[in-house]
Hints:
Layout: E1 14-20, H1 31-40, E2 43-49, H2 54-62, E3 68-71
Parallel strand pairs: 1-2, 2-3
Amino acid sequence: MGICAVRAQERIEIFDAHLHYNQEPTPFYTLDQVREVFRRNEIIGIVANSRPNKGTLELTQAKWPELKVVPFIRPYRVRSDIQTWFNGPRFSN
């Protein structure tokens, strides 16, 4: 029986396409902790959204050179808006 050589797969860059960084009432992780999780897992980019949009803005404004942040602003701002945001005065004719 011969020896089978096994090669490790090449590491790939990961882009997290749906990250929630909610702020209600406060974020569970600090920005520094979030950055460390991304660094440790070699995440190079995220589509960030949060409730309220403050978390998205904080991630975008951090301007970490190793992480691309694409902001995704939600039309609802608080948990109670999730099912009814489209009925609000901002969207009526």
